[in-house]
Amino acid sequence: MSLLTQIISRKVLALFAVASFSALLSSTVNAYGQSPEEIAARIAPIGNVCIAGEECEVASAAVATSDGPRSGEDVYGAFCTACHSIGVAGAPKFGNADDWAPRVAQGMDTLLSHALNGLNAMPARGTCSTCSDEEIESAVTYMVDNSQ
């Protein structure tokens, strides 16, 4: 086989490999059962920055008035579940009594203080900047009650 034939064969093989890999990546469902549209929705930005003097859309959800405090379950589902469902960075897992026992032993005031002010990798208010103290307390109570 001549050198030119070898080079062409390698390039064709490389092109085939790249095409096969591209087809694999662009399949309609990934290994986790999510379509490209579901992935795009999951990783979409959660906000925009508005600069004074420029046109800016106002997010209706942020401006909307509330009919009262959200339940602990609602707050957990919207803000806490991302970390507490799988134990991100040592977060006590929802429903796991062993994870919660040492924290519960410190008392509800300490748990609430950690939730409001943050602790270790958990940010203050657990990423819910719009939650009232009452809503944070409800979420903590919901997690504790369901983890004993």
From TrEMBL:
The keyword Cell cycle does not apply. Residues 1-31 form the signal peptide. Pfam families: Cytochrome_CBB3. This is Cytochrome c5 family protein. SUPFAM superfamilies: Cytochrome c. It comes from Marinomonas phaeophyticola. Keywords: Electron transport, Heme, Iron, Metal-binding, Signal, Transport. InterPro entries: Cyt_c-like_dom, Cyt_c-like_dom_sf, Cyt_CIE. Residues 67-147 form the Cytochrome c domain. PANTHER family: CYTOCHROME C5, PTHR40942.
